[in-house]
Amino acid sequence: MAKIETIEVATAARPYPVLVGGGLLERAGILDQWMGGGDVLAVTSRTVAGLYLDRLPLLLGARGCESIILPDGEEAKDASHWQRILRRMARLGLGRDCTLLALGGGCVGDVAGFAAACYHRGVDYVQLPTTLLAQVDSSVGGKTAINTDWGKNLLGAFHQPRAVLCDTRALDTLPEREYAAGLAEVVKYGMIADSGFFDWLESNKRMLLARDDDCLRYAVRRSVEIKARIVAEDEHDRSGRRAALNFGHSFAHAIEHSAGYGEWLHGEAVAAGMCMAARLAVLEGGLQEAERKRLEALLDALGLPVHAEGFGADTLKRAMLADKKNLKGAIRLVLPNGMGRARLTGDFSDESLDAALKGREP
Ligand code: NAD
Ligand code: GLY
Question: Nearest to residue 148, comparing CAs of 71, 251, 74, 70?
Answer without folding.
Answer: 74
